[in-house]
Structures are given as C-alpha cells and as structure tokens.
Design goal:
2 domains, 142 residues
C-alpha cells in the first residue's frame, strides 16, 4: 500500500476549511442558500477535475452501482451541509460543533465499516474510537 497518510492529512485540512467556512457563512446566509452555493462550487471543481482527466485520455469506466453509491454519498453530504449550517446558525462554536459533527461521523463510519463491511480493528484502533466517543461526550457536555 502506498503512503496514504499525507493525502489523508491534506483531506483533513480541506474538511477543516469546509467546516470553518460554513461556520463563518452561517450568520450571513440562510442554510439552504449556503448549501447550494457550496454544492455548486464543489460541482464546478469536480467537473473541472473530470474534464482534466478526460483531456489527459484517462479511461473513465462507470457502473450503475458506482453511480448509485456516489449519488447516495451526494445525498448524505448535501443533507450534512444543510444541517451543519443550521447547527452553526444556532450559535454553536466551531470549536465544539465541528469536533462533534466530524467525530460523530468518524465513529458512525467506523461502526458501519465493522458491521456492514465486516472490517476489523486493532486494539489501538478500537481505543482510538473509544477516545472519540469520550471526546464527543465531553464537548457536548460543555
């Protein structure tokens, strides 16, 4: 396996910007407007990347299952965007709301991986998830 950690950390940086800028925008636009603008910019970025790949001659094999799963991911992120705007519009600090949202998503994705995909965790990884649960609890408690 190639070294995935630097790319994963760059992805985390991008997700931090995503949550941070939603927090800043939440007081200035209605949640639905913010989510649509966010999605239009993301779609433009994705379309540009797709065009680049096409111009480079890379094969773009598609499957109905892949497209359906991507659509479900889009539905999930679209709802998450709207709800994140709503959470932050209610005055939740970024330093609390973002870790609860992101940590909760990490925890739930891990549980889905374990239950649905039958993945396994090492003892250290399970301990990390326990710490995520404790962290969410402490943040939510205030």
């Amino acid at each position: 396996m190639t070294n995935w950690l630097p790319l994963a950390l760059l992805t985390a940086l991008c997700l931090a910007g995503y949550n941070f800028f939603i927090k800043l925008a939440a007081d200035h636009v209605p949640p639905a407007v913010g989510a649509v603008v966010l999605q239009l910019v993301a779609a433009g970025l994705g379309a540009g990347w797709l065009l680049r790949l096409k111009l480079l001659g890379q094969p773009l094999t598609l499957s109905g299952k892949g497209l359906g799963l991507a659509a479900l991911a889009g539905l999930s992120v679209g709802l998450a965007e709207i709800l994140t705007f709503v959470v932050f519009k209610r005055g939740v600090p970024a330093s609390v709301g973002t870790p609860v949202i992101v940590g909760g998503s990490v925890l739930l994705a891990a549980v889905l991986g374990l239950v649905v995909l039958r993945e396994s965790l090492s003892l250290a990884q399970a301990g990390g998830l326990v710490l995520v649960v404790l962290g969410i609890g402490l943040l939510a408690k205030g």
